[in-house]
Queue: 2 jobs
Job 1
Amino acid sequence: MARTALVTGGSRGIGAAISKALKAKGYTVAATYAGNDEAAAKFTRETGIKTYKWNVADYDSSKEGIAQVEADLGPIDIVVANAGITRDAPFHKMTPQQWKEVIDTNLTGVFNTVHPVWPGMRERGFGRIVVISSINGQKGQFAQVNYAATKAGDLGIVKSLAQEGAAKGITANAVCPGYIATEMVMAVPEKVRESIIGMIPAGRLGEPEEIARCVTFLVSDDASFINGSTISANGAQFFV
Ligand code: CAA
């Protein structure tokens, strides 16, 4: 039977590319979204991938949503924790609200997504967790104290989960995309974006599909001994 994959934030941007790539590899895929009903309905129409609406920042909603996915599609074998937001501002202007929204969604959201599926993975002796972190969690970024903190936190999460899951057949890894051509990066002021592209030796933004291919590899049986690792895909912009 096909394995079931859950992709949070899976109907737009990098998440949509991941959902589609996993479906193309034969997985049964559930994609979550937070608010954009229209985009989700269009995504389902075009791809046949079921979408589910909940706020990853809320533990109870995540738990209920995951129970619904499992009732519809079977036990979740693969989690791609991709949902994320930005609330960029220089630190002296960053509000506690901007801090909290990003922490709740990007960091606590990973806990809320993985925690409900973890006991089932342990019982079944198989699981694949991939957390979508960021180059900015590795190097920090002007105006992203909040976002960089969450993305660095992702790396701590996967390194710890890897140690807990290894004996139970569960792997946990991170992908750190560089600047990828998505709405999130397009929202950066054009002049700033141009200067960012100037810092990428590849001379271009990445494509969402280039991140999706990292994920399909990490969740495959071929990657069974890769656990607690980080794949950086950033066009040579930054090395750890
Ligand atoms: N490094 C150093 N200084 C910088 C800077 C940088 N990268 N960016 C801006 N500055 C400076 C400006 O030159 C300006 O300096 P002066 O005051 O001396 O003129 C100051 O910082 C900015 O002041 P503003 O009052 O204009 O700032 P603002 O409140 O309007 O905020 C901003 C503007 C939010 C910082 C905007 O420039 C921005 O969005 N920058 C992009 C931040 C970024 O790269 N975010 C990544 C988004 S993509 C993503 O997150 C995906 C991923 O994982 C890679």
Note: The chain is about 50% helix and 15% strand.
Job 2
Amino acid sequence: MASVRIGFGYDVHRLVEGRELWLGGIKIDSPRGLLGHSDADVLIHALCDALLGAANCRDIGFHFPDTDLKYKGADSKLLLAEVVRIITARGYRVGNVDITVCAEAPKLNSHIPSMVDCLAKIINIGADNISIKATTTEKLGFVGREEGIATYAVALIEKI
Ligand code: MG
């Protein structure tokens, strides 16, 4: 395989009452949270798919099926750690990642430094290699109606 490879990931989770909101590995104060089999950390899920895609190692659902009770309520940080292990086993390290979270509410900008620190520790790369951006969708579509949160991620991996 090539010495440098790129991957792309996308994920969506529904916003509902009665769930905690976990994004980028941290808990965010919010009246509603994301629904999912795991903790539904949509940011980490998109990042995992970008990393797996870069290494051509299928997707997050392949490695952590939502039919498996082992992953019910799972901390997505543990899934990301496992994805990093899979990539390392293939002889790659993470170069840099760039992530865009699409959410109408809550406002995420003040939480981004904490997310970056959290992800940098798990991936074991410098914080300057992790970019997280937040945007609304101008009240358009399911994100704009606050029915859910979407995340896009790209990742570069390099042959060790
Ligand atoms: Mg997901």
Note: The CA atoms of residues 11 and 45 lie 6 Å apart.
